[in-house]
Amino acid sequence: MTTPTLRLSIPCVSFPRGRDVLHALALTLALALAVALPPADAAARQATPAAPAGPPMEDLGDGRALVGGIHVDRHAQSFSLPARVIRLAPPLEFLVVGPPWERAYESLLQTEVLPVAFNLACILIGLEAPPGAAPDAHFDPDVLEGPAVRLEVSWLVDGEEIRRPAAELLREAQRPAVTSDWVYVGSYFTPDGRFLAAMDGTLVGLVHAPESIIEHRTGLGIGRYGSLAGDGTVAPPVGTAVTLHVTRIVP
């Protein structure tokens, strides 16, 4: 039997040399391999599918880059990506989801950005999750540990930019204001080598989901299913184009 050739497309971008950049490029290769290689039992049943290309990367100069539709500023240790409001009604379990949008029915925002690109952007601004940072299970009540990030959402009203902490766009029934307490947890790889966030497109979670790349540190609505919703007095209407801003909080 002829062994099929594995082809990976890993775009290059000229960043300053350093440990964090090497880490990012190494993870990109690992993720591409994880997507390209099927589980062993699947490989025995069918030929290896063509490997998808990695996220396109463009060097914009001065520490800035465009990574799979995400604007990354390594000097400011931040990145931003386009999204739109898709739901305000409860129950909400995610702040933003991407392709393949399996959890869009319970997310405030939706984006076209791929989870692999989102995670790479996190790494490029210096985020590195400790081992086992992601929740162990859905609705895990344990407080999460990981590097802190600031999440903000902006949109235009009559040509003027409105920018709010992401937490202000949420409300929890019979609870005080939602706190801005977000951490990078990095999601998981499955035992057969697949990136969990890429399987259903979960980028930022609210209720502690193992697949999330960023999560709320203490969790929201855990044990109170249906209590989380969008705050219509602050959040823009469903269908509004917004920008999600992610910034590393330096200790």
Secondary-structure element string: HHEEEEEEHEEEEHEEEE
Radius of gyration: 18 Å
State the separation between the terminal residues, measured CA to CA. 55 Å
Q: Kindly estimate the percentage of residues that lie in beta strands according to DSSP.
A: 25-35%
Overall shape: globular
Q: Could you explain how this protein is built, in words?
A:
The chain is globular. The protein has 251 residues and is of the alpha+beta class. Helix 1 (19-36) runs antiparallel to helix 3. The chain has one domain. Strands 1, 2, 3, 4, 5, 6, 7, 8, 10, 11, 12 and 14 form a twelve-stranded mixed beta sheet that branches. A two-stranded antiparallel sheet has the order 9-13. The protein is built from four helices and 14 strands.
Short description:
By secondary structure, the chain is α+β, with helices and mostly antiparallel strands.
Could you outline the blueprint of secondary structure elements for this entry?
Elements lengths: L18 H18 L3 H6 L11 E5 L2 E4 L2 E4 L4 E8 L8 E4 L9 E4 L4 H10 L23 E10 L2 E6 L4 E3 L9 E3 L11 H5 L1 E4 L8 E3 L11 E3 L10 E8 L3
Parallel strand pairs: 5-6
Antiparallel strand pairs: 1-2, 2-3, 3-4, 4-6, 4-14, 5-11, 7-8, 7-10, 7-14, 9-13, 10-12
